[in-house]
């Protein structure tokens, strides 16, 4: 069970899956460029720990989740497929009638309810109070040349878990949003449309109140992941992370509002999202390979920063895949596989190729599909929040494993009738391909020859 970023890094070091960079490196562009090059290695390359970022006393860790192996380690799994099996076992016990209310049902299930966060009086995240609450003393990264050129600085917190609640302290939310540093005491945070944080901020704005915010760096690796995943509404990220790691997460209270943060975090930035005076955030180099344009963002005034005595600053570098953020979504893909099998009849599996992840595009396998069933399934998927903006869905027969992308590509190109098998949503700009069509006379090997090869293979002297 991993309780902190320190635990995770020690584990990676022990397994020789962490490369330390001991020479001084710049937080402006250099660390990001190194990380992007490492991330492009086969299987994602190692995690990186920069000991002297801008000669700061605080090391920077990148590419922490950037491989399937490290994703398994972060979640304590032998295989990510185990996540689908475990989540499906929970779903099988629930009266699932659809997406509405599903998050609440999951939150109340004994396996998750027993992993709700527990409050403790003190934690390592509050060992040191940072004098002056100065953001600029920390080695936050500037990743792409034109990041933040519209206003503020080009430095961002890219792996910050932003904690908010409703005005009455209910409905806690923990999500990862990009946080641009404008000056030593001000952040611009661009909420995701429809997210829990943007709903909370709107509620505070309607009451003319400042919204307490806490930005957490580090803590249990499972929480960093659930904060990045679009969980069903009603299932809170901290309880889900506790279930993933097999134990409740200890939390400490923040003094400026009804917020709690992981006791084992590296760094906690506290402040208030103002009800007015929005800032400009961006542009920001993103996974599309382009800059997200500058736009309005919440103004967050920083009032307090606490940290461990020896904090490590985690960061992620985004850009054209493969990058770490693509690997992080593999865990969500396996949870989604279990969800879809209950929400959409006939769905066997889902796979999101790394380059497709952030366009909500996927390969979907169906049991015994017919053309009518495929179209009905695609329409049902497009109604779900996770596929409302899906650029492309490819539907295959369950006999073709969705994870076998070479077979999927072969089937799509060779078996698809481009006049009849394309399902278009002109209004939504979405496309689905029915690649379930099967040849009348498929090529089949001779069974007797197959048996002969099995018997004589060693004789051939072939590997």
Automatic annotation (TrEMBL):
InterPro entries xref list: UbiD, UbiD-like_C, UbiD-like_N, UbiD_Rift_dom
GO-annotated molecular function: 4-hydroxy-3-polyprenylbenzoate decarboxylase activity
Pfam families noted in UniProt: UbiD, UbiD_C, UbiD_N
Domain 3-octaprenyl-4-hydroxybenzoate carboxy-lyase-like C-terminal: 326-424
GO cellular component, one term: cytosol
Record domain 3-octaprenyl-4-hydroxybenzoate carboxy-lyase-like N-terminal: where: 9-83
Domain spans labelled 3-octaprenyl-4-hydroxybenzoate carboxy-lyase-like Rift-related: 120-321
Example GO BP: ubiquinone biosynthetic process
PANTHER family xref list: 3-OCTAPRENYL-4-HYDROXYBENZOATE CARBOXY-LYASE-RELATED, FERULIC ACID DECARBOXYLASE 1
Name of protein: UbiD family decarboxylase
